[in-house]
């Protein structure tokens, strides 16, 4: 990788291969399909390996299969697509073709509840989600069962506005915190 631009995909707009604030992106290593959280178009756009339009799913709304500013995408080991439905305070699960499967989470600060979930990553079939207003990372199984949450700000420090997250090869989780201007390693 030498930093040379190889391809520019899409432009601002509302149609196929057009985006209005693309925010999250995931590539299926098996199929080469690209899943893009198209934030202000309230949908997920799916591109083929050659970056041509495959299909999209979702539209603006509060019902199931609808989104209010989807922010992040992730794939599990079965190829299911998980989407952080940020302003509906939930995670929605879809098949690769965009067929709705299930959802989990509801608005609130309690265990298994979410407040503005943003970024999502899956590691060993556990889902890790950053939450803006709960200032934490919540962990679920790929079936949507709550496991734990951590990182909430306390007298010893902690997360204020967690945004990005990733795992290293040793299984450590790194979380970028926008407000505290630092990276947390777990």
UniProtKB/TrEMBL annotation:
Transmembrane segments: none annotated. It holds the Pfam family NHL. Keywords: Repeat. SUPFAM superfamilies: NHL repeat. Signal peptide: none annotated. NHL repeats lie at residues 6-50, 54-97, 147-186. This is SMP-30/Gluconolactonase/LRE-like region domain-containing protein. It comes from Amphimedon queenslandica.
């Amino acid at each position: 990788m030498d930093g040379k631009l190889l391809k520019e995909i899409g432009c601002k707009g509302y149609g196929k291969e057009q985006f209005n604030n693309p925010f999250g992106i995931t590539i299926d290593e098996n199929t080469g399909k690209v899943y893009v959280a198209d934030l202000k178009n309230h949908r997920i756009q799916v591109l083929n390996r050659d970056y041509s339009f495959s299909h999209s799913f979702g539209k603006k709304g509060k019902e199931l299969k609808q989104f209010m500013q989807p922010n992040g995408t992730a794939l599990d080991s079965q190829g299911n697509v998980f989407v952080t439905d940020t302003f509906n305070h939930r995670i929605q699960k879809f098949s690769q073709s965009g067929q709705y499967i299930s959802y989990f989470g509801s608005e609130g600060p309690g265990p298994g509840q979410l407040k503005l979930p943003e970024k999502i990553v899956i590691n060993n079939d556990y889902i890790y989600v950053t939450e803006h207003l709960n200032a934490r990372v919540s962990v679920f199984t790929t079936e949507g069962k709550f496991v734990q949450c951590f990182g909430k700000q306390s007298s010893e420090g902690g997360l204020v506005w967690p945004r990005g997250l990733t795992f290293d090869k040793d299984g450590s989780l790194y979380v970028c915190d926008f407000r505290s201007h630092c990276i947390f390693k777990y």
